[in-house]
Amino acid sequence: AVVSTQSTGGQVPPPAPTGPQCPVVDMASVYARIARNCQSEKYKNNWSELVAMYDIPPKHLLYDVDRNYVWVTVPKIASSNIKRLIIQSKSGFAPGSPELTAAMKEPHEFLAKCCLVTKEVAAEFYSLQRAYTFAFIRNPWTRLYSAYHDKILTFKSFDDYYNIRKILFVAREWTWEQVKQDDKVKQAAQDITFSEFLTMLAKTDAENFNDHWKPWFLLTDPCMIHYDYIGYLEDFENSFKQVHERVFGDIQVQVEPRYTNSTLVNDVIAAYKSVPQSLLDSVYSKYEDDFKIGGYSRDINCIGQELAVAG
């Protein structure tokens, strides 16, 4: 085909844009979005009040008085890297050592002995009110896809098949008697679909979600906690560097390769395109605060959207 240049002064016009016009994620505006979403300045960092909201000490609030930080953890958002740093700082284990490898197999057990923000800790260490407080966030679409692959398809850390049973009960409408039959559950677990996982989420109160897919808005509680730094997993190299230099600068660390490579965008988009739009809308409603505060587009075609460098 011949492109006419008569009406463009001899210049070939640029091709018309194709595909979705995805907005750029403005990371630096996350704090302004928190203020708008929460509608008021309620920041207190009153850890005594916060931990009192839980029946048992929350596993996602970790602290160190000497290093003066509080980290609000969110599963499926690079938490293993920070946990490794904390364990190194508390134990002195060398990077790559057998001791560190063993501790990282059950990091919650190690951290529960040293680093949970309990009622007693919050009452004793008033300095935590001024601690450097940080968290990491992630596009909810990619986090859910990652959780499905890591925690449903491979059953990692869920030996009792609780979540598989719940999916079968909610999405496949199995009876209670059926979900109690271990052999049938284990057989059915081999082909749990992504849509069935999302159906379970759509029909469950987000407050009752497993932490690996609970909205990070509920875990980080940004309306009650003032954050000195919120990092993006999509910009993890820079985000991790910021926290490492501020809190763990004296500790040598190497980020594991699997965290430097994000989930393949095309695979994620393809997975969501197989899901009915009505189901996507229901799931989105559970994570609306995550999308709005993070500045992420709800359009599945915009998964992998560009990031504006945070100032």
Kindly describe this structure.
The chain has about 300 residues and is α/β, with parallel strands linked by helices. It is about 45% helix and about 5% strand. It has 17 helices and six strands. It has helices at about 30-40, 45-50, 80-90, 100-105, 105-110, 120-125, 140-155, 160-170, 175-180, 180-190, 195-200, 215-220, 235-245, 255-260, 265-275, 275-285, 290-295; strands spanning about 25, 60-65, 70, 130-135, 230, 305-310. The strands form two sheets. Strands 2-3-4-5 form a four-stranded mixed beta sheet. It has a two-stranded parallel sheet with strand order 1-6. Residues about 1-10 have low confidence and may be disordered.
Short description:
The chain is an alpha/beta fold and 311 residues long. It is built from 17 helices and six strands. A hairpin with a 4-residue loop joins strand 2 and strand 3 (69-72).
Number of helices: 17
Structural class: alpha/beta
Strand order of the largest sheet: 2-3-4-5
Q: What is the CA-atom radius of gyration, in angstroms?
A: 22 Å
Helix content percent band: 40-55%
Parts with pLDDT < 50 across at least 5 consecutive residues: 1-9
